[in-house]
Amino acid sequence: MKLETRKYKTIDVLKMPLKAAPVAVTLLMLWGIMQAIIPTALLAVATAWFVDTAIAIFADKAVTSAIYAPLALLLVVVALNSLITNAGPQIITPRIKFALERKFIPAFIDVRASLSYKHIESAKSWELVERVSKDPIKSFQDGLYAYRVMIRSILSVIAILGLIITQIWWAVPVIAVFSVPLFWVAIRAGQKNYEAKVDTRKYVRRHEYYTEVLTNREAVEERTLFGYGEKISDDFIGQYEKARKVEFWVQLKQYAMAKSASICMSLIAILIALTLINPVITGDLTPGLFMGIIAAVFGMVNMLGWSLQDATEDLAQSKEYMGDLTAFVELSRTEGAKDLPDDEPIAFKELEFRNVSFKYPTAEENILNGLSLKIESGKHYAFVGANGAGKTTITKLLTGLYDEYDGEILINGKELRTYDTSALKALFSVVYQDFARYQVSLAENIALGDTARDVGDDSINKIASLVELDETITDLPNGINTPLGKVMEGGVDISGGQWQKVAIARSLISRAPIKILDEPTAALDPIAESRIYQEFEGLMKGKTSIFISHRLGSTKLADEILVIENGEIVENGSHDKLMKQDGLYAQMFEAQRKWYNE
Amino acid sequence: MSKNKDKRYNILRLAGRSAWLYIKTSKWSGVLEQTLAAMHSFSWAAAIMATQVLFDAVTAASVGEIEFWAVVSPLALLAGIIFVQQILNGAENFVSDAVEQKNKGRYMAALQRKMQRISAKNFEDTNFLDDVNKAREGANSVGYFAFVCLQMFTFYVVFFVSVGWYLFSLSPILPLTILIAFVPAILGQIAHIKVFSKLEEQNAPLRRKYEYYQKAIVDREFYKETRILGGFRFFHRLFTETLTIVTKKTWQTEHKAAIMRILLNFASFVGLGVSIFMLFNATMSGDISVGAFAAVLAGLSTIFDIMEEAVTYHLSHAAESIGKVTNYFKMLDAEEANGEIITPDFTKGIIAENIRFTYQGREEAAIDGVSLSISNGETLAIVGENGAGKSTLVRLLIGLYTPDEGSVKIGGMDSKKIHPSAIYGTISGVFQRYQRYKMTLEDNVAISNTKASANIAQIQAALDEAEFNEEGAELGTMLSPEFDGIDLSGGQWQRLAIARGLYRKHDFIILDEPTAAIDPIEEERIYNQFKQLAKDKCAIVVTHRLGSAKLADRIAVMDNGKIDDIGTHDELIIRGGKYAEMWQSQAEWYENRA
Questions:
Q1: pLDDT exceeds 50 at position B3
Q2: Within this chain, do residues A232 and A376 fall inside the same structural domain, yes or no?
Q3: ipTM of the assembly?
Q4: What confidence tens digit (pLDDT) does each residue in A473-489 have?
Q5: Residues A386, A308: one domain?
Q6: Which domain range does residue A355 map to?
Q7: Which chain A residues contact residue B257 at CB under 8 A?
Q8: What burial class does residue A587 get, using C-beta atoms within 10 Å of its C-beta: 0-12 exposed, 13-18 middle, 19+ buried?
Q9: How far apart are CA A313 and CA A146, in angstroms?
């Protein structure tokens, strides 16, 4: 299944499952109809027949054996009622859930995996994505349930009306006229309740945040030392009570409305009963049918009380969900996002930024301001500069994560945007600051560096020993096939340093001609960092590489250092040249060196 | 904590304790709720009785035994009962919702306050964190659990006693119908729980995998890397495989459960059939009237529905929440950090004697025999590689943790014997894991001292001193885009954290260097600030950069949970130990090649 790009409406909460599981959903709706008719009209008729026959027997107008047929019918109806109303949905609902999970979840994943990267970094779109894909199955199930209840409620009223119409025709318009406002009240109440929930969300998010601060691990030092627990807990109660009071008054109204509606319904039931007394006395209506009708009418009053309101609330939620879904499928996507890298990377000669300017979609100011630079095959580069200078942004543009820049980025003289996503994937290998620690086996972690090929164990072992993972592998219970992390059974945690090596191995096994190291050592101490850069330098001999760092000692090794400030290259050249130039680089270098040379 | 044989948490005690907590927290409204429940429940039996009276009258009227008006009065009685029933139903549900909502906030607040009294070291233990999460869920379910326990008595027992008594008055054998209705429902529930807990056991690891693969494709944490690596297909294949298995298993189990349900429904139908047959016999033998037959027949479906609701809805949901509720109470019962309330005298400094400390669930000691003293007004720097134990040692020295062995004397008081809040009174800190509170700028600073009301002038002074200079941020500005506020850069957050540390009154301060990416200029600025802050105060500076440690009076070099050496910078260099080695390796980078 694919999620089409179109406007989704409330009714889609019924239509889409109907398409995914036609038989089961149809059956479920049919069940709704049976649930409407069996316990009402059918049961009334069976009761009537039985009671009337019994009365006739007592009056000696019938033989005792006449009771068996009505008794049998009564039992059959009761059987149908208990089996159908309860068991039917129980067996169909899981079937629907099964179909929805298998068809919808992958469809959602497909959309999410191809989104333009900007949506991932934008708080607003990301929130939407999270909201839509949090539990789509439940949203659809709730919607289906609401429709079933609606069908059932309306049909059971019709069934009872059908029964009464045969006796006193004028009661029907009266009930019909009365039911409309009652339905309306129930629907309004459901909507109001939903609106109140939307209103209270801001308080709820707030008080949930306080709970988080008071119970999580990250804040434990400040929480304990500063001792703000009491105060924040008071704030929690404050927000909680705000939300609760809003809901309290809405609920009070809602209950009052619902119960007034129920009392009106009961009143109608009583009036019907009252008008039916005379026909019984005159003999136009049998006492059995009287009893059957009365039991059915009172039964209906009880049923309609709550379910209609709940169903409306669910439908209001479905409506909102469908609005979100529409917005979700309308988010822009990247072509080829899910593709493998090209089998053979292009032969890389040079890469050039020509006067590139770029602004993040949600930002106000440019992060890159007419930046120009040149990267040639086989050389080592280092990007240095302050936080927020635009170093990492450059890598995001290179790898095609963002493509709404001004100016030109040329790879072998051809504009980057004209390359397929798969070609870019094959061209670059990046070790990020927050590189992924995939909780799969060590071998798979490394093999992910070259997804276009089937990497054999031999090459994995070879790469692993290059980055000195041999010892780690020997210690792992299943060697390179041991899952890392705690998610898989038999998984083993490895240290931060070991993960670092895995990430570097992943980059080494990649056949991408350009390797980028984007501050992969930020969480390490400077000593460990220096070591890693030095080792990487050795491993990268003869390849094109880019180091991004703010610690300058290690970047000295680069053939060319590019100093970035305010989205521009302000200085470039070798370490010696830049030191002589006595500009920003020299100033930063001095700032760090000072600690060691006094 | 999930599996336990602790008698304090057996189901009866849990039920009693949560019910008591429920009433205690809600007071009169809880009592009102229970009274309404009992009255509401009784109204059901009354409605069945009134229906019988009405039906008997109708039967009599149909054969001309009584007049029209003699039928109206039983109808009026029924009408009255039904009106009252509707009102009671509304009132009971409303009050119970209101009580439950109100209690929920109180339960959560109690848990929050408890967290404040538990030793900080627990929070480094992942099992404990899991338990906290479960206890949080428990705070949300304990109210419902109590509600069900109370309802069992105030609603269901009242219902079945009153209906049973009525049926008994009709014919002594009829109350059996209630039992007949009850048994299959209960059996069904037990089987259901068994089947599903077995499924959960099998499925939990699979589901974890399946959720993980999904995350590896679409979660923020992995998104860009998976995309650039072209890892989609790899994870998608794993994801589809596990999805197929998980859904199939779930479906098979639910299918099985549904079939079992149908069989039990059949059993309960047989029960209903038997009941009808008993009623039928009683009617034919003239024990009960035809009216009573019809009234009870209509009532039977109510009895079976209420039974179904009690067992498959309330009881099963309550049963599902037992684990969470147990966790909630266990967490409330957890041991608290305690001790005497005495103000430490920092002129006596801080003395650690041969301390050892091991984190819960780990084998190696984080601190393995450290002795150290810091005298009044002294600044101590602690250096060492990641994982050497620097932060742990600091937490021990300020009493956040107490040592497993040895002792820490803070201002002359043993950290094990003094109440934590007494120690913290005059200690402040800027931690490596400093917080970015999604609160206003003012609250972000004032949170370090909530005992006194916020002092605007002092907050401003602290911000100025920390050189916090975000344009457009005023004291009332919310610092979180999530709550319609602004976001700060990493550098400004760091300054804010320093302002927070300054705002708190202190004789002793901890300055733990952030490891996150900070450019050299900013790094130097923070350092100078730390230096400023530590001046003439009892202070500990934790750092990764050896050079900066020169600012301190003494430097402690940590390695593998031990203090490798301690002394001034020059002393350490001369001694040529670990410090000198590290120093050399770093300084090399900054020597000119020439």
A1: no
A2: no
A3: 0.86
A4: 988 888 899 999 877 88
A5: no
A6: 350-593
A7: 90
A8: exposed
A9: 8
